[in-house]
Amino acid sequence: xxxxxxxxxxxxxxxxxxxxxxxxxxxxxxxxxxxxxxxxxxxxxxxxxxxxxxxxxxxxxxxxxxxxxxxxxxxxxxxxxxxxxxxxxxxxxxxxxxxxxxxxxxxxxxxxxxxxxxxxxxxxxxxxxxxxxxxxxxxxxxxxxxxxxxxxxxxxxxxxxxxxxxxxxxxxxxxxxxxxxxxxxxxxxxxxxxxxxxxxxxxxxxxxxxxxxxxxxxxxxxxxxxxxxxxxxxxxxxxxxxxxxxxxxxxxxxxxxxxxxxxxxxxxxxxxxxxxxxxxx
Length: 281
What we know:
Structural class: mainly alpha
Number of helices: 12
Helix content: 55-70%
């Protein structure tokens, strides 16, 4: 288990992963083409057999390329007319220089890529656990082994633990995590923690995005993304992995609860918030 305060919900940190979990984490990083493992996967790793079961189910979706295509469609549905890039003088005055902005941009885009594909994969997981897989999934041809994306994953600074953040920055991370919410839970989006390396960026982002939260512009965009995902998951289930490892009833319930919570309250929201953050810089 991760050190106290490292994650806001039970999770196995990347640095603490060993054995089969470490192997799965590496496969996740390679297959998604990002330099980190998102919170949902770190949380599923705490459920006995949960991470292996879900990854076996959904890895063919990533390898097929369908998730990349559909996640681009989902992101294209996010319309945020009230937001626009802020002038360079705003960032320079806050000591966010060009190099920092390039790193921040790479970080946001990495999270946006991972969140887009993870959202659809987990929507399909919910459908498979709730309704079962279609018969065509059992007849599917196994997908080829995943290859690294042509562009190497960017080098990013380490993900800070919540307990390591100064109180005022922790409060800012939590305030940003409230924007666009459709409901409450204990999870705090990793992107905001990762961006805590640049507190001034978080401060400017909060000031820029809070009006869109109050007007429900962010919530409406999220509702549209969730509706899109619900429509797509039935078709994606036909590409899912047909031969799955054993999963106990308790673990099955825990995985379903986690996937439901993250798709409804976290990842769909972060598709919107990631696009909103990217629009500012």
